[in-house]
Amino acid sequence: MLFTAENIEELNLLLQFKTAAHDSGIKVHSSARPEVIQACQRLFGKGLVTLIDGGYLTDAGIEALVHVQVVKSLLEAKTQVS
Q: Residue 34: its pLDDT value, please?
């Protein structure tokens, strides 16, 4: 299964949270791109953020962010050529 465009929007939105802690929140404004607004609504529906327009990460959201950050760092790592 490949990542969908919706998955990518959700992953990018999770990366907007500065830290995997309860003290960093975001607000997705009504003027944001529709894809971002919808991604935020999906994250809320999945129980990863506290408000339909962002808010704070839930415990599950914090766990998801940690995993997203790991994947991002692995993809950004320099390739070792043998």
A: 97
